[in-house]
Write a structure and sequence with these properties.
Layout lengths: L7 E7 L3 H12 L10 E8 L3 H11 L3 E3 L2 H5 L6 E4 L6 H10 L3 E5 L6 H13 L4 E4 L6 H11 L6 E9 L22 H17 L2 E10 L4 E5 L11 E7 L5 E8 L4 E7 L8 E8 L2 E6 L5 E6 L10 E4 L22 H17 L8 E2 H19 L5 E2 L4
Parallel strand pairs: 1-2, 1-4, 2-3, 4-5, 5-6, 7-12
Antiparallel strand pairs: 6-17, 7-13, 8-11, 8-18, 9-10, 11-12, 13-14, 14-15, 15-16
Helix pairs in contact: 1-8, 4-5, 5-9, 6-7, 7-9
The structure holds nicotinamide-adenine-dinucleotide (NAD).
The site of nicotinamide-adenine-dinucleotide has 25 residues, from helix 1.
Length: 397
Amino acid sequence: MAASPGRLLGTAVIGAGMAGRAHAAGYRVAPTLFGAGLPVVRLVAIADVNAGFAADAARRYGFERAESDWKAVATAPDVDVVSVVVANPLHREIVEGLLDAGKHVLCEKPMAPTVADAEAMVAAAQASVREAAVGFSFRRSPAISAIREQVRGGAIGRPLAFEGHYWCDYGVDPARPMSWRYQGRPGSGALADIGSHTVDVAEFVCGPIVAVRGAVLSTVVTERPVPVGTAMGHAAVEVSDVREPVTNDDQVAFTATFASGATGTFSASRVAFGHPNTLAFTVLGERGAATFDLNRPGEFGVADDTAPDATPGYRQVLVRPGHPYVSGGFAMDFPAMGHGQNDFFGLQARAFLEQVAGIEGLPRCASFAEGLHNLRLLDAVVASAHAGGAEVAVTPL
Ligand SMILES: NC(=O)c1ccc[n+]([C@@H]2O[C@H](COP(=O)([O-])OP(=O)(O)OC[C@H]3O[C@@H](n4cnc5c(N)ncnc54)[C@H](O)[C@@H]3O)[C@@H](O)[C@H]2O)c1
């Protein structure tokens, strides 16, 4: 249901950890992006079981109050739109509670810890008249969106292959504290945490994946110290002598087939030494290629058959007005101004608020059905690993 014109939209964020703060910053900046027309956005509440985290985030991003129980957000009459940015196993209960209470919900990826949970969340969203979306924030990258336009528009010809990897080093040090990220069933580790982004980007650019095979999951740091206090995100904190087992994957690799016939090769690692945050991919087409690396988010590479014979090869394209999201989307929308992953959360918040307000503007956020599809794809990877790398079909969206 769209917000009525002229009304206020009260926003809240549940979870004031690493990504929760990015959502809070996103709602703060959203009204400054693009033209007028958005209802007045009120920054109402940040909720976190850690009252200190909630209070700090509320103060930093200008939200009116801090709560220590998400139910206070669900029952608040001045809150319309809520981001759910807590550990994945907590998403379902909170999302269902919020939809039940009549809130619009933007839930972080991966949408849920299991396909069954995600199916229940899709049903809850279908039973609600409110908007429900999943935060695949890389869809807001100007460079990734520009590559998508090139590929979908046929500029590099039929895509033949997609190679994508998301390599992080947040888990490479065995002294880093145990957290919710390291506990769960196989596939809930690197695959769900960062691999979920890569497969979403792959499908965003090249269309649906229909099968996966050759999957290998591995855990290389088998136990971690329990923190003395509270761990946020990937931060190093004081740890105790108590160690707990890591129960999910540090690394994953697999291959895939797209509906177009293109071949995919994927890997994700949270123990990739020297790679703090490398989401990178290349699309090889019949008449060209395109490449992206999150370490240089304001540019992408293109090779095509329009280059002169004497100077063929990749061109470095610096993101500029004319590429998606740039004109009006950045405070200074000059060519090659540079931007990064934090900016994607502002663009995503703007898109979700437009969606809630019934404004036809930015592309809509990923639906819960798409979030479920993403989980089914990850589940197929896990099934392939359990079956010694056998091919597993992916249920279409
Ligand atoms: N889109 C992205 O780029 C991106 C990046 C990082 C994380 N994420 C996603 O965001 C979510 C959170 O990840 P994170 O890195 O911010 O985790 P985090 O551990 O840094 O923060 C989670 C926060 O939730 C709080 N919390 C725990 N139980 C709670 C409850 N019942 N009610 C309210 N708050 C509670 C914790 O105190 C903590 O502050 C995950 O789903 C993750 O996959 C997305």
